[in-house]
């Protein structure tokens, strides 16, 4: 690290669990963030501020006025811009020493097969059940680490799936794929503004723990947060032998 980096990340260097060695790991890491909306707007800036060396943003949407109530990576003058372009502008202003990649397209199978193997950690910040299932399946295929988050109304959840470890459950172990699933989203159900910040911030914290190798990430655990009661619950998750993704078929 150069002198500027030593000063910028000095509060991390004071933490014995991170120190210089851990910060070097972050600078050499690559985070793939799928979704640059509410969750991505909270997660990406913290990873950029923390010094994750490369960040790839994937999103096909453009910024709308209704996004600004919670998607803090985008400003009023971002309306009409692609979310990845707006996000890159924000992250570059926050920490210009990083490399920010953008892909303005839907996260389909071909794109994920291209990007997931290059990432140190995959962070699902989408709001679509089918896309979450696809991200889970492709990350499992490439034996990566997936941090999955979701938020709707006043309820949020986070879990970590580390497919480098034998016996790790996957997203489909908790939420099996269902072709008849009825999708709900913020446009129809609403979402409490700070909720996406809380869940996205937890996703960022989980990513930093994974990248540095500290603490006890939410592997095999589903954290559930209720913003109305400020109640946190935790469910232990085990792999299902009949899971359509990671099970023993």
CATH architecture: 3-Layer(aba) Sandwich
Assembly annotation: single chain
Give the fraction of residues assigned to helices: 25-40%
Q: How many strands, which pairing sense, and closed or not: the largest β-sheet?
A: 8 strands, mixed
Q: Mean of the pLDDT scores?
A: 94
Overall description:
This protein is α/β, with parallel strands linked by helices and 249 residues long. It has a single domain, classed as Rossmann fold (3-Layer(aba) Sandwich), CATH 3.40.50. It contains 10 helices and 8 strands. The protein has helices at 3-8, 10-13, 19-27, 38-50, 83-94, 109-115, 129-141, 171-174, 186-189, 193-212, and strands at residues 30-34, 54-58, 99-103, 121-124, 145-152, 155-162, 221-226, 231-236. An 8-stranded mixed sheet has the order 3-2-1-4-5-6-7-8, with helices on both faces. A hairpin with a 2-residue loop joins strand 5 (145-152) and strand 6 (155-162). Helix 4 (38-50) runs parallel beside helix 5. The longest helix has 20 residues, at 193-212. The radius of gyration is 17 Å and the shape is globular. 41% of the residues are buried. The mean pLDDT is 94.
């Amino acid at each position: 690290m150069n002198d500027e980096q030593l000063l910028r990340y000095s509060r991390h260097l004071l933490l014995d669990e991170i120190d210089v060695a851990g910060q070097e790991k972050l600078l050499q890491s690559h985070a793939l963030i799928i979704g640059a909306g509410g969750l991505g707007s909270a997660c990406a800036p913290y990873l950029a501020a923390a010094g994750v060396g490369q960040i790839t943003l994937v999103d096909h949407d453009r910024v709308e006025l209704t996004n600004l109530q919670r998607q803090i990576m985008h400003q009023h003058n971002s309306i009409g811009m692609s979310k990845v372009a707006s996000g890159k502008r924000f992250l570059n202003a926050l920490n210009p020493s990083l490399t920010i990649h953008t892909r303005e397209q839907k996260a389909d199978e071909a794109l994920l097969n291209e990007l997931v193997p290059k990432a140190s950690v995959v962070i699902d910040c989408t709001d679509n059940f089918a896309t979450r299932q696809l991200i889970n399946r492709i990350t499992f295929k490439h034996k990566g680490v997936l941090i999955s988050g979701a938020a709707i109304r006043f309820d949020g959840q986070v879990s970590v799936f580390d497919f480098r470890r034998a016996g790790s459950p996957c997203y489909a172990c908790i939420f099996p794929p269902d072709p008849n699933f009825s999708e709900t989203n913020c446009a129809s159900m609403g979402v409490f503004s700070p909720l996406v910040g809380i869940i996205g911030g937890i996703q960022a914290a989980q990513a930093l723990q994974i990248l540095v190798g500290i603490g006890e990430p939410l592997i095999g655990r589903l954290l559930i947060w209720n913003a109305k009661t400020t109640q946190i619950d935790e469910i232990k998750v085990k792999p299902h032998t009949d899971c359509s993704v990671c099970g023993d078929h």
